[in-house]
Amino acid sequence: MEKKKLITLPRILILFPVIAIGIQFIPVDLSNPKTSPENDFITLKKLDTKTATLLRNACYDCHSDQVRFPWYSHVAPVSWLLSGHVEEARNNFNFSQWGTYPEHEQIGISSSCYDEIADDEMPLKSYTLMHPDAQLTDAQKEILKDLFYQE
Ligand code: HEC
Description:
The protein is mostly helical. It has helices spanning 9-22, 41-44, 49-58, 78-92, 103-118, 125-130, 138-148. It has one domain. Helix content is 50%, strand content 0%. It is elongated. Heme C (HEC) binds at residues 58-59, 61-63, 85, 88-89, 92, 112-113, 116-117, 122-124, 127, 144.
């Protein structure tokens, strides 16, 4: 007797949407915790609008409590990738909690920010692919490097 194949094209065609919908029910934490605005880097440094916007576009969507979550960020598996990045980035440092860091830590973070920008390591490539406006021009890199430069 001929064995029946378990994996057949019609089964795959039925399973795919079932899985794609099913994974949407796995809970993901995509949220911005409430933090005091007076601890925010942009507020503390009294940045002008141009520099503030630049920093928001390039870094705040991961390293802050003011992450913008577009509609597709709520769709799995994008949501998994995004929440993972944001959590890891906030664990490194969080611009919204800048004022709570002791001065030596602020200096250390600033100099790593300088290095990451100078070496084109940040913003993450996967982010600039989705957000071309976060792809820094040489002039924008200079503005941010000046901001993070430590004597
Ligand atoms: C898409 C999310 C995302 C964006 C946008 C982003 N980062 Fe990060 N950043 C991360 C993640 C995730 C890590 C931790 C993993 C790593 O080092 O790659 C990190 C790590 C860092 C670190 C620590 C690096 C180390 O190895 O110690 C610095 C400094 C940093 N980012 C600065 C920045 C600056 C400055 C910007 C804006 C120009 C920025 N990041 C934009 C996600 C992001």
